[in-house]
Amino acid sequence: MSDVRIIDKMPQFKRSLYSVMGDALKEATRDTVINSKAKAPYSGKGHLRADVGIRRTSRLSYTVYYGDNNAKDYARFQEFGGDGTRKVRKYTTPGTGAHFLRDAGNEQARKIDRTFKKHAMRAKA
Fold first, then answer.
1. What's the pTM value of the predicted model, to 2 decimals?
2. CA distance 8 to 60
């Protein structure tokens, strides 16, 4: 009788899959930053557009943020078009406006399945 050997390659496949899916999420996050920067309000100094970043919060989670600690309130005010007491009446640069980050993120969310499929072809055991 012959011996049957089972080789479990699931751990290697799991590592590969995490890597590939992380790359897909990183690409989507990077595209979100690019699209949101193009639509972020611009006052001539460009501080808001220049102060954007990506933070990896866990293995398959990224966060896009505008403004460091000093400019968070300004970035929030511009993203939501105001706060509880004041409202942005007019964005002076054409093509810019409120919800620049939300809209860019929603656009990437609609395309994420294609991004995952593109990267999933690289997963192997």
1. 0.82
2. 24
Q: What is the Cα–Cα distance from 58 to 41, expressed in whole angstroms?
A: 30
User: In terms of DSSP bridges, do strands 61-66 and 52-58 run parallel, antiparallel, or are they unpaired?
Assistant: antiparallel
Of 46, 9, 54, the C-alpha closest to 30 is 54
Residue 19 to residues 22, 26, 61: CA-CA distances in angstroms? 5, 10, 12
> Using CA atoms, how far apart are residues 40 and 33, in angstroms rounded to an integer?
10
In this structure, how many other beta carbons lie within 10 angstroms of the beta carbon of residue 57?
A: 8
Cα(27)–Cα(115) distance, rounded to whole angstroms?
Answer: 8
Within-domain flag for 72: yes
Domains of the chain: total: 1
Q: By the 8 A CB rule, do 62 and 74 touch?
A: no
Render pLDDT for 61-112 as a digit per residue (tens, 0 to 9).
999 998 876 678 888 888 888 888 899 888 888 888 899 999 999 999 999 9
Q: Three-class SS of residue 37?
A: helix
Query: Is 92 a domain residue?
Result: yes
Q: Structural domain of residue 48, as residue ranges?
A: 41-125
